[in-house]
Each structure stands twice: as C-alpha cells, then as structure tokens.
Design brief:
By secondary structure, the protein is mostly helical. The protein has two domains: 47 residues, no CATH class; 59 residues, Arc Repressor Mutant, subunit A (Orthogonal Bundle), CATH 1.10.10.10. Helices cover 74% and strands 0% of the residues. The radius of gyration is 26 Å and the shape is elongated. The chain starts with a helix and ends with a helix.
Length: 139
C-alpha cells in the first residue's frame, strides 16, 4: 500500500508542471494542488477498483447512515404540515406518512374518500409551494 501511495505522489509531482497553466493566480496554491491530487486519486481508484459483492439484505450494514438527517427532515416535514389546514394535514399524515388506505383516512379525518384524495393533492401542492418559497428566501 505504501508503495502505491509513493507512486501516486510521484506521478502527481511529475504532472504538476503540465497543470501549471491551469492555475488562477488569484486563487490559493494549496487548494489547487489538493484538487489535482483528489482527481488523480479518483482516477487511480477507478482504474484499480474491484467490484464488491454485497447481498442487498446486508447492504444496510455496509452503508453509512446519518440519523440526524432523518430527524431533521422529519422535524421539517412536521413543521410544514403544521401550516396546513387540519383536514388537509390529517389526510396527508394518514395516507402518505402512516400508510393507511384512503377509506381509513376518510373515516379517521371525518371526510369523504374523494375529499381525502383532493386534500392530499392540494396539500402536497401547497407543501411544494412552501418549500419553494423557503428555498428562495434562503438564497
């Protein structure tokens, strides 16, 4: 492994004179070198990679998981849903979040099945508008 790293580093140093024309004199030198090294490493890994075979049912053990992202997005969804009218929120929560049928949602929310469908459609459109508006405000 150490010899591979030395080989990669010597290759990078040998390639620097060829890349010197791409440097922007207004930018810092070290990030420029790191960028070249990163791309060289990616190229090396692509050339030498071997396909890993992991059964799909064991894939979750191999994958990294960011639990905080799940918690944050769940909080954001609940916060956005809180801005919707009660019947619309109830319809979306029942069908989309809890996985209930439209009939079950209608019974729970106290509206007709077609009302549940309409509420879901309108509610999702309203949520999309909320998200679009908030994204524009952040920029």
């Amino acid at each position: 492994m150490r010899s591979r790293v030395k080989l990669m580093m010597s290759d990078e140093v040998a390639f620097l004179p060829g890349f010197i024309t791409t440097i922007d004199t207004g930018e810092l030198f070290t990030p420029w070198v790191y960028t070249i090294a990163r791309y060289k490493l990616i190229d090396y890994l692509r050339r030498t990679r071997t396909a890993a075979s992991v059964p799909l049912d064991e894939g979750t053990e191999v994958m990294a998981q960011d639990d905080s992202a799940d918690a944050e997005s769940s909080y954001d969804v609940r916060k956005l849903l809180g801005r919707l009218p009660e019947k619309v929120r109830c319809s979306i929560e029942c069908v989309k979040l809890e996985g209930r049928s439209v009939a079950e949602a209608a019974e729970r929310c106290g509206i007709s099945e077609s009302g549940v469908k309409i509420n879901i459609h309108r509610g999702l459109r309203t949520l999309a508008a909320f998200i679009t508006r908030e994204t524009k405000n952040e920029n």
